[in-house]
Design brief:
The protein is built from 9 helices and no strands. The protein has 180 residues and is mainly α.
């Protein structure tokens, strides 16, 4: 009795990644699990193998930022933007850096640049909303949060955080209208 074997074309082709992309994928996995040193090591390898990929620099910049190496993070964001001026992740990272430094006007500017390039990314709106809130512009914060909420998947835990921020900002906007 012969076995039934489907022809090779009927099976999905295995996913083949170039070596730098393999390091990058592994770095993303380490990053997601907060193993920042391992993520940095893999990003360094990916960049060494393909120094022309802006996304690698932008991602390494985020890891460096979370590791509190701000100058190195900014250098990577700048390199990412030299390679690809449309690299939204680099603008997002620069916004995070400016926010951490308390420069909310610069953070809003950088998040706005990221938002124009990646308008479907809710995390940009959330971070920019908090920057607006910290800068004293609660109406803009409310507007950003209202845009962000429907962009989240229903079970995304960040949705709950955004909802709490929206409620806080709406209360603050209501208090402003009473005093203004």
């Amino acid at each position: 009795m012969s076995q039934s074997v489907s022809p090779p074309s009927a099976r999905p082709a295995p996913r083949r990644l170039a070596l730098p992309d393999r390091y990058y994928e592994r770095a993303l996995d380490h990053f997601a699990k907060e193993r920042l040193n391992l993520a940095l090591a893999d990003l360094d390898e990916a960049i060494a193998l393909n120094p022309r990929k802006a996304e690698y620099y932008a991602t390494r910049g985020l890891v460096l930022l979370l590791s509190e190496w701000h100058a190195d993070a900014e250098a990577d964001f700048a390199q990412a933007l030299r390679l690809d001026p449309a690299q939204w992740l680099a603008y997002y990272g620069r916004g995070m850096l400016a926010f951490q430094e308390g420069n909310f006007a610069a953070a809003i500017d950088q998040f706005s640049r990221a938002q124009r390039l990646a308008p479907q990314r809710p995390e940009i709106y959330i971070y920019r909303a908090v920057a607006f809130y910290r800068a004293g512009n609660v109406r803009e914060a409310v507007a950003d949060l209202q845009v962000a909420l429907p962009l989240f998947a229903p079970r995304d835990s960040r949705r709950e955080v955004a909802q709490r921020w929206l409620e806080l900002c709406q209360r603050a906007a209501g208090a402003d209208s009473l005093t203004g």
